[in-house]
Structures are given as C-alpha cells and as structure tokens.
Amino acid sequence: MEETTTHLMTEEAIIAFAREFDPQPFHIDPVAAADTNWGGLIASGWHTGSVMMKLIATTLGPSSMGSGGGTELRWSAPVRPGDELRVRMHVVEVRPSKSRPDRGTVRFRNEVVNQRDEIVMTFTPDVLFKRRPS
To answer: Is the Cα torsion angle 117, 90, 2, 65 positive or negative in sign?
Structure first.
C-alpha cells in the first residue's frame, strides 16, 4: 500500500469549486446547507475526486502515463470543511503490455480517507505506467 500526502478541504475552496462546477445549495451556501439532509456544507463529490487525482498524480510522478478509466467510483461519506484528505493506494493487479514491452497497467483500489480514517470515496482505476526493459 502506498499513501499520499494530505490536502486540507477549506470552506472557501469547497464553495469556490462548487460555484463553478456543482452549484447545489449544500455545496455553496452554509446557511441553506444547514437545512438539508446533510446538516451543513459538504464538498462536491467531483471536488473530492479532483483532490484525489492531484494527490495521486503527485505521488506517482512522471512514470504514470494516465488512466483509461476505472471500474468503480463511490462516495461513501460527506467531506466537510476542515477535513484533511489523503489517498491509500492498494495494488490489485499488475499486467505488462503484450504489444508494448515498455508499458504496463496497474489496477489500484484507491481509498480517499479523512483525518479520522473514514473512507469518503473509493475509485478503482487502471493506470498505464512506463516499464524498464526486462
């Protein structure tokens, strides 16, 4: 398992992201959010996913060649202002490319967790990597 550094979710960043990309009341208005089923302001799931991507890209570095998608994406708990997120990356499978020996695919099970180790999001991507010749 590999673990990333952390990212602090601030109220200002949650609201700014949501105003641009997911302008629902529970993401952009703390007063209105208090009267929703969430009981307060929460981050957009897409914001959480964007933070996950930043943390993973920073951790994997230039050997990662990107992802063609994943098999699972799930938000399991709300992310609130003050939450500190990090990603636990578990390798599920490693496959060398049959046609390109300089590449291979790694399937991860990524768990985005907060400061209380609660899983707030999971994602299972296949990531293409550069390989050393064997």
So the answer is: negative
- The CA distances from residue 57 to 20, 23, 100, in Å, are 23, 26, 23
Q: Are 59 and 108 in contact (CB under 8 A)?
A: no
Quick one: which of 88, 97, 85 has its CA closest to 124?
88
Q: Give strand pairing partners of 70.
A: 125
Beta strands in 44-118 (DSSP E): 64-75, 84-96, 103-113
Measure CA of the first residue to CA of the last residue in the chain; give whole Å: 24
pLDDT in tens, 3-54: 999 999 999 999 999 999 999 999 999 999 999 999 999 999 999 999 999 9
